[in-house]
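Figure S4 source data
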Amino acid sequence: MSDKPETVGQDGVERLLAEAQGSASEAVDQGRIDSLLNQAQSALSSLEEPAAALPPGVTPFEFKDLQGAAAANETASLDLLRDVQLDLKIELGRTQMHLEDVLRLKRGAVVALDKLAGDPVDIYANGRLIARGEVLVLNDNFCVRVAELIAGDDGQA
């Protein structure tokens, strides 16, 4: 026998298995089985060799420690949201107008809306209805007091 194990393809393995199953009374050549086992062992050991066989510049894969950082014990504050952009829109009401009527609008024109004075106004954040509130005047500034928070997906603007 030579030092190098004999190479057997898939067909050879299937033939050996068929021979072993086909005749239970016949003994399979032990030398052939040893040869196949040696070949499998050498293939497995070649997979476990260090990265010496890798091309230059390629490093073997290493598992990193996936343990995250410890949770901060600080309390959350609005400072976390300081740089988050949010498109906030307060809708006093709606109306439908013809284009010619819109073009005739001048400073001081009054546009009738579909809501009455004192009705709640809709508050949208990034196009989604999030709340309803009431308009107030505080120190000559208009303000909106939130009266009801809206949950769910209703009301896309």
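Figure S5 source data
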Amino acid sequence: MAVNCRFATGVHVLVLLAAEPDVLRTSTEIAEKLDTNPVVVRRVLASLQQARLIESQKGPTGGSRLLKPPKAITLAEVYEAVETGPLFHTPHVRAAGPARVNAALERVFDGSMAALRDELGGITLAQILKRTQKPSRK
């Protein structure tokens, strides 16, 4: 089973952009900080730009930055921007018994996805950013 990291990568990218909102960050810079391939970051950036969460400028002085303040971006928006299909899948079956199991599973999956979206909708990028900042020393 393949592991999907698009959502986590999207959150990481946005946290990096939110940490320095006035700085344009290139996909290469972001990829180095995330220890991943710049192509992976560019794909995520393209999805985030299409969802109008970031803006990107091409060229030697280009890069990406947030289009909205961190408190106006929910994790549900990030999830919707970067995920391309359903989280859960049922196998294709023909027999009546397995088809009934699939139907029951689909109802469970739908409820699980609704709960996930509700949870992610209540968390903003600003909250994640705050949780990741180092506590100040006195």
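The domain at 6-86+124-132 is CATH 1.10.10.10 (Arc Repressor Mutant, subunit A). The helical segments are 6-19, 27-34, 38-50, 75-82, 96-121, 125-132.
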